[in-house]
Amino acid sequence: MKAYYLIKNGSSKTAFELKDLHLNEPKDDEVTIETEVFGLNFADVMARLGYYKACPPLPAVIGYDVVGRIINKGKNVKNLEIGQRVTALTRFGGYATHVNTNQSGVVLIKEDTDAGIATALATQYSTAYFAAEYSMNLQKNEHVLIQAAAGGVGTALVQLAKRKGCIIYGTAGSEEKLEYLKKQGVDFPINYRKQDFYEYIKAERGEMSIDAIFDSIGGNYVKKGLKLLAPGGRLAMYGAAQIAGNSDNKSIVRQLKTLFGFGKYRPTQFFANSQALIGVNMLQIADYKPYILKKCMTAVVDLYNNKEINPTIGKTFKASELAEAHDFLQKRKSIGKIVIQW
Ligand SMILES: NC(=O)c1ccc[n+]([C@@H]2O[C@H](COP(=O)([O-])OP(=O)(O)OC[C@H]3O[C@@H](n4cnc5c(N)ncnc54)[C@H](OP(=O)(O)O)[C@@H]3O)[C@@H](O)[C@H]2O)c1
């Protein structure tokens, strides 16, 4: 058994080391999975850079999603059997050939399901599903703004919002990503490196005109987004990617800029406009509402099996190319899901 350990914050070139893994027996509610692939998530970049508070102390095995086969299980595990092929949301531990994880984040997949696609379904699609269905309750014909729409969670949100019959404004940072968004059916793709998304939507529809906003960038993006929110509108915040930047060094200045960029809000303004500012954190859902995590994961696997959603695999790297894969994601080159193959 092997795992890539995060041994040092900073550059991806010195951050990870492949070492032997000593895995305990699974706990009562856990299964042990022998992995085929694991997925990258932007939270991994945040953990590598030292911004992620939930990351275990180093050296640590990070990683949120794997696809593989169950090889052992605890005594309370129901409806999952040794030998079955599964996708799993892991609470860290994913950058490994073997991982123990709670049964609530484990869902069966078909033998012929592409492993990369299945790993996208675990964290990114279940997060998007929870945000779109539980937090935001998207409705037909609502105007929806999705930030970083060409990314992993972004693509999932676009597909789930399309499925609901929403009109989508999607932002992305390159012309290649804009072409991708058009193909995904985004009605108004916006290159936010060339055009301010707030000015674009204000000119198109005016302020207070968007029903649902999904924000993973944080800071002033949330502040500007709230000005676009219609009465009855909801803004879900589920990330703060702008803290990361291009640098391998942690920056207090960028952290403070993001923090102050949010601005100040009064509870009465949400009451007066019948609006909601909603936080989404799947780790909290996994810990406190595991049955909801299971429902979200089961729902996205079913939607994929019914051909109602279709994750995009932007690029697959070999495990030995983990450093390059991290750089690719941090430098905003990726589209859809980044997959790591053992
Ligand atoms: N709260 C939760 O439970 C939860 C769960 C999963 C993911 N997330 C969050 O959701 C977001 C998306 O995750 P993901 O794994 O799907 O990643 P991703 O969207 O595939 O990649 C991140 C994207 O963010 C955009 N971005 C904007 N500003 C950036 C900056 N300053 N530095 C780097 N990237 C920037 C880039 O797209 P452009 O070039 O198009 O701008 C980049 O490709 C992340 O913020 C992540 O932390 C939260």
Account of the protein in words:
The protein has 342 residues and is an alpha/beta fold. It has 2 domains: 2-123 and 290-341, Medium-chain alcohol dehydrogenases, catalytic domain (Quinone Oxidoreductase, Chain A, domain 1); 139-280, Rossmann fold. It has 12 helices and 15 strands. Strands 3, 4, 5, 6, 7, 14 and 15 form a 7-stranded mixed β-sheet that branches. α12 links the parallel β14 (313-318) and β15 (337-341). α3 (115-135) crosses α4 (152-163), α3 packs across α11 and α10 (282-288) crosses α11. It is globular. The model has no long low-confidence stretch (mean pLDDT 97). Residues 41-43, 123-124, 127, 148, 150-154, 172-173, 177, 216-217, 238-239, 241-242, 244-245, 280-282, 329, 332, 334 line the site of NADP nicotinamide-adenine-dinucleotide phosphate.
Note the main attributes of this structure.
binds NADP nicotinamide-adenine-dinucleotide phosphate, 12 helices, 342 residues, Rossmann fold, 15 strands, Quinone Oxidoreductase, Chain A, domain 1, 2 domains, single chain, 25% strand, alpha/beta
In brief:
Helix content is 36%, strand content 25%.
Q: Which overall shape is indicated by the principal axes computed on the Cα atoms?
A: globular
The CATH homologous superfamily of the largest domain is named Medium-chain alcohol dehydrogenases, catalytic domain
What is the third-level CATH name, the topology of the largest domain? Answer: Quinone Oxidoreductase, Chain A, domain 1
Query: What is the CATH C-level name of the largest domain?
Result: Alpha Beta
Q: Helical amount among residues, as a percent range?
A: 25-40%
Low-confidence stretches: none
How many H/I helices?
12
Number of domains: 2
Helix/strand order, N-terminal first: EHEEHEEEEHEHEHEHEHEHHEHHEHE
Which CATH architecture of the largest domain would you pick? Alpha-Beta Complex
Number of strands: 15
Helical/strand content category: alpha/beta
